[in-house]
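REQUEST ID: PR-0412
SUBMITTED BY: lab tech R.K.
PRIORITY: routine
TASK: structure prediction, single protein chain
INPUT:
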Amino acid sequence: MNIYFLTAILLAVVLLVYFLRSAKKKSNTMLYLGLAIGIFTLVIHNTDFSCFGASTPIDIKVTNQTNRELKIYTISFWDDFSGKPQNFTAFREVLNPKQATTICMDNDSCNFWLVAKNGSDKVVYLNQVTDNSSMFSFEIRGESTALEKGNTHLALKLTADADQSRQLEQLSKWLNVVFGCLICFVFFRNKLKINGSHR
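STATUS: complete
OUTPUT:
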């Protein structure tokens, strides 16, 4: 469960409890809690945790030299304590033509793939990296002709799963915005009522 989905549920509970209370029992306590959750979510959204707590952080500079928009992903591979293969796929960002970006990630296993997909969700670039360097620079100049079918099939599956998680995260963010705005509206409406009654 991503953090934005959790905060959206908490904000929904705050609103539900507030509106289910009778008018006499209503207080701003729940609204203050909702505002605190909203501020926490905003801080999380504006903080980059990509290298937070990373034991082996690396910087990857990626340049899109094509004339197409590309979606950039990284896929890390490692073996757990029992020797079972594990992986983690992360969507990084959409790169416009001729645009460059720098990705920070943990590379404890020294084994990751850099993957690019076009607008049709086709894998057009896949670079397998097994290097323990701390800095990398890659230029994507066009669709690679040396892509192995098995690797691209796996990359397509893993990035599709990451896209689904990203869509859920985007939906959760919008729910946070809607619930947060509703809490702010009710809070300031109550403040105006109180100020008006004191006149």
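NOTES: The helical segments are 3-20, 29-45, 149-197.
REVIEWED BY: pending
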